[in-house]
Amino acid sequence: MTGAPTQDAKPWLTVIMPVYRGERWVEQALQSLANQSDDGVELIVIDSSPDNATADIVRRFSGRLRLRLEEKSSLPSWQTKTNKAVEMASADHICWLHHDDLWLEGRAAAIRDWVRAAPKAALHLAGSQIIDEAGRSLGVWRCPFDNDGALDPTMLLERLLVQNFISAPAPVYRRDAWLAAGGLDENLWYTGDWDIWLKLAAQGPVCHHREVTTAFRVHGSSLTVTGSRDTADFERQMQIVLDRHLPRLAAHRGRVHRAGIASIKVNGALAAAASGRLAPLLPALGRVLALGPAGIHRYIRDSRIADRLIPRVRAKLMGSF
Question: Of 114, 165, 228, 301, which residue is least crowded by CB atoms under 10 Å?
Answer without folding.
Answer: 301
